Amino acid sequence: MNDSSTGKSDNMPLRVVIGVGGGIAAFKAAHLVRYFTEKGHHVNVIPTSTALRFVGAATFEALSGNPVSTDVFDNVDEVQHVRLGQEADLIVIAPATADLMARLAQGRADDLLTASCLVATCPVVLAPAMHTEMWQHPATRDNVALLRSRGTVVLEPAHGRLTGKDTGPGRLPEPDHIGQLAEAVVADRDMYRQSLTARKVVISAGGTHEALDPVRYLGNASSGRQGFALADVAVQRGAQVTLIAGVTEDLPVPSGANVIRVASARDMQQAVTAAARDADVVIMAAAVADYRPANVAAAKLKKGGGDDLSSLALTENPDILAGLVEARRAGELASEMKIVGFAAETGDASHSPLDHGKAKLLRKGCDLLMCNEVGNGKVFGQRDSQGWLLHPAGDDVVVTDVPHSSKLRVAATMWDEIESLDE
Ligand code: CTP
After folding, report:
1. Residue 107 resides in a domain
2. Mutate to test the pocket of ligand 1, among 360, 362, 366, 379 (most ligand atoms within 8 A of CB)
3. Residue 49: which CATH number?
4. How many whole angstroms from 99 Cα to the centroid of ligand 1?
5. For residue 43, how many other CB atoms are within 10 A of its CB?
6. Which of residues 159, 187, 215 is at a domain's end?
7. CA 16, CA 364: separation in Å to the nearest integer?
8. Which residue range(s) make up the domain with 48?
9. Considering only CA atoms, which of 333, 259, 253, 323 is closest in space to residue 288?
10. Same domain, 270 and 354
């Protein structure tokens, strides 16, 4: 927790107000309601009157278990126009239309949703959805900047197919993704402050597959979640993000990130090295295979087919992280570029995971290393993480505890630390 903490931790039940603007994506708000109710949160839905032309009040009432109204003159005896906003721990508006953002930026209170936002002291998160031209219009840009300057979180819209034939930024992200991004703000409302604008960042994520024959490979259990979370936070903080994704679970693409898919360690090395040329920060969150089969069979290896399958010859893969540090030392990359690594460690008879992490930091020569203890269901494939952030101080290592929390919150802590390396 920090100064911007709301005093609510990651897993406490929250009073969530879901605002729904009048756009075609209003139907996705129904899934967002379900996301929060299934996590045990108390949900009130406040649609605008236009939103109710897309989705009926009955849908929101059934899913939230609470009555729905749009007007400040509904339920006047309960002073509803201020009560819902005052009591909320979190307000999420999805979709936030251009018109609704304009009204919020003006401080209008001409319906229940805008009135609720005006009395709210909790974090307010807007998930905009509109045609690309509307999103890019100077009026909308100004409104977004004004809202952000007042502490409202305006999420970046996803890129992709919009209503009709057009594609571009303006699409509503998937509801679960909005839910995760919004929930994280409750513990830190500055989590998506615009502190990385004009920064170019490169993040690798996921595992690699090292081919053995056309159908088999050597791989690992990395889900890619931590790398994607780092990309999510960087996008929301305003960075230009290239995400080099190895083999991952089916994760939502961080809005607006340039995603390059690779499979092997050598493909990843090529993609990272190319993207790193003009980057300000490179984070190697990928679990890169240290070795690959020395020979890749052109045809499927057959049991009893004359192939010796009882042993496997391996050859070492390039160390991408060490290569980046070396290239910077050699002046091939900007000297002010920050290079960040990960260390997924288990303890052994003589050393703790942290001992291994410290040794790895000094061996790899990067600026920051996130060290996790893994194994026994810890970290790999999980939604949560914890560990230590290590950075070098001469021959010594400074250790900062990263408490147990969602991978998004861990990503935010890492970005806070990376940004402080510049100071
Ligand atoms: N890494 C890399 N290229 C490799 C292996 C690892 O860039 N061929 C990066 C990872 O992305 C991570 C860091 O190096 O940021 C540490 O990875 P890890 O596998 O823990 O380190 P290794 O050097 O392989 O050491 P170990 O002997 O513990 O496996």
Report:
1. yes
2. 360
3. 3.40.50.1950
4. 49
5. 22
6. 187
7. 45
8. 15-187
9. 323
10. yes
Active site residue 220: yes
Binding site, annotated residues: 290, 300, 318-321, 342, 360, 364
Per-residue pLDDT reduced to its tens digit, 128-163: 999 999 999 999 999 999 999 999 999 999 998 777
| pLDDT tens sequence across 190-213 | 999 999 999 999 999 999 999 999
- In 22-97, alpha helices (H): 26-38, 51-54, 57-64, 80-87
- Residues 281 and 146 occupy one common structural domain: no
Domain count, the chain: 2
In a domain, 7, yes or no: no
Q: How far is the CA of 365 from the centre of ligand 1 (A)?
A: 12
Look at residue 3 in the predicted model and tell me its pLDDT: 41
What's at 140, amino acid-wise? T
CA-nearest residue for atom 6, ligand 1, is 288
> Is 320 part of a structural domain of the chain?
yes
Q: How far is the centre of ligand 1, averaged over its atoms, from the C-alpha of 408 (Å)?
A: 22
How far apart (Å, rounded) are the C-alpha atoms in residues 13 and 409? 18
